[in-house]
Amino acid sequence: MGNIKLYISIIIAIVLCSCEFDPLDFIRTTYDVDKRTADSIKKNEQNPVLNITTTSDNYSFIIASDLHLHTDEVMMPEFFSMASNSDASFVVINGDIYNSKSEFASFAKDQFDNFNAKPCYFVAGNHDIYFDWKLYLDNFGSSTYSFKVQTPTTQDLYITLESSSATLGKTQLDWLKEQLNTRNQYRYCIIVTHVNFFPQQVNNGIYQQEELHVLFKLFSDNNVNAVITGHSHDTNNKKVLNVNYWTTDALKNNNYGIVYIKSENINIDFLKLD
Question: pTM for the full model?
Answer without folding.
Answer: 0.88
